[in-house]
Amino acid sequence: MWRFYSPAVLPATVEYMAAGRVVRLNPALITLLDGCIDVVPVAALQQEVTEQVRHLLSHGKVMTFHCDINFPDYGGFGEPAPCSNQAVFTPDFLTTLAANIRRQGGYLNLHMLTDQPLERWREYQGVSPAAVCYQLDAVADPVYHRQLLDSISGQGSCASPVLEIFGSAGRPALTAAATFSQVQPFLAELPLLTFQAEATAARSTFAAGGMASAVVRDYIAYYKKRYTGAIQLQGGIKLNTIRDAAALGADFLVCGTVIFRAGTNNPAEMVDRLLQELVAEK
Q: Sorted alphabetically, which InterPro entries does this protein's record hold (predicted)?
């Protein structure tokens, strides 16, 4: 799995090429739950997630899926905070989903939005995800961070801390230099870094900001000078921003709203449009 979570290892077909790099779309499954928690039965939501994953895998242009799990203990959410979704994304459900994805040659990522990532990871480690994303702001203690990394690698998963470029009112973002000092001792064990690259009031509920802003460019540029692993960008990936995101040097693009909530009943069609936008001549 480490080989997959490193720059440009997929076949460099025209559909994946952008700015001289191989770019992998990583659909955010949480978007399928927007506005549905506490309204639609859990079993129906789980079935919808399963069907959409099967549909996109059969399309052949998506290999990895991103599953954000919102825990009520995370203090970095904006206002209004998003709904907790563990009732849908249970360990048992995700274990089955991940196994189905692996059988079709794909990968499932977990993104744990919690201030207790080690404890939450122990609840979900049976899922055997390919990659585990966790909030860097939740692992300020390097000893705790070390324990988390050892536990993730011990399960055969790749660890990917999430760096907040904008943060929230309750937990302002740190500078690139400050976050780099936190991850630097562990860089050799981190094939993938994830950047929350758009200001979000409440994650997938409300969006504000811009992918191509000077703040995002400068932040990513700081890391590109010091880090040679893969970069994943999350937040603000749309048809009119995907080229900007790729130009920043992204290897993975987490995008959910544009795929699942863009007014089309065919997410695979939107995947095609996103990939076509990447290679279109301007």
A: Aldolase_TIM, RibuloseP-bd_barrel
